[in-house]
């Protein structure tokens, strides 16, 4: 599969100088676009993570029987963009207080998630949650429901979902933030 933005094979076996993180923030089409636009991001793809099915498909995930969330895997060069800057985009691009939904998209597959490769990234993500929660409370908004954990299993979604909004510029994008800024 060729990535339509980066013009190379979708491959997450990057060099050791490249880090990765997985975000779930609602429909993966719009979330992926948020991240492929960022300088320092070297690869994105949409997929499924956080479930217990060995071979999830879009139909199974949408049926709510796999436990997976729609997610975006982001590979980035930490010398060009920090994890904290990626987390800022994540927190601001959706409403992490909505539980098992984002706007009109309802179901466990739309839950807010951060899946890290290592414990040190998990700690940074948890610290960012505390910072953003304070900002939300200051704005009169509710509690964050985002799941944060070290998660190793990521399943690439079907090809037609990859870079969907590049292939379909007028396609659906159901993500929307709280209009609350994340204080870096």
Outline of the structure:
By secondary structure, this protein is α+β, with helices and mostly antiparallel strands. It has helices at residues 28-36, 58-62, 83-93, 119-138, 164-167; strands at residues 19-25, 41-49, 69-76, 101-102, 105-106, 112-116, 147-150, 154-156.
Could you walk me through the main structural features you see in this protein, from its secondary elements to its overall organization?
Helix 3 (83-93) packs across helix 4. The relative contact order is 0.24. The longest helix has 20 residues, at 119-138. The protein has one domain (19-167): Peptide Methionine Sulfoxide Reductase, Chain A (2-Layer Sandwich). By secondary structure, it is an alpha+beta fold. The strands form two sheets. It has a six-stranded mixed sheet, with helices on one face. The model has no long low-confidence stretch (mean pLDDT 94). The chain contains five helices and eight strands.
């Amino acid at each position: 599969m060729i990535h339509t933005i980066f013009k190379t094979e979708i491959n997450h076996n990057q060099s050791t100088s490249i880090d990765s993180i997985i975000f779930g923030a609602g429909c993966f089409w719009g979330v992926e676009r948020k991240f492929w636009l960022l300088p320092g991001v070297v690869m994105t793809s949409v997929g499924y993570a956080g479930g217990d099915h060995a071979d999830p498909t879009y139909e199974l995930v949408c049926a709510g029987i796999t436990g997976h969330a729609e997610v975006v895997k982001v590979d980035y060069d930490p010398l060009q963009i920090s994890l904290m800057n990626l987390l800022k985009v994540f927190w601001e691009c959706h409403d992490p207080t909505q539980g098992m939904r984002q706007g009109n998209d309802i179901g466990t597959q739309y839950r807010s998630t951060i899946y890290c490769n290592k414990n040190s990234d998990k700690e940074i993500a948890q610290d960012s949650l505390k910072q953003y929660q304070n900002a939300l409370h200051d704005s009169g908004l509710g509690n964050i429901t985002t799941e944060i954990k070290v998660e190793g299993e990521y399943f690439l979604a079907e090809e037609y979902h990859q870079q969907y909004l590049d292939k379909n510029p007028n396609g659906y994008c159901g993500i929307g933030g709280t209009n609350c800024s994340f204080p870096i």
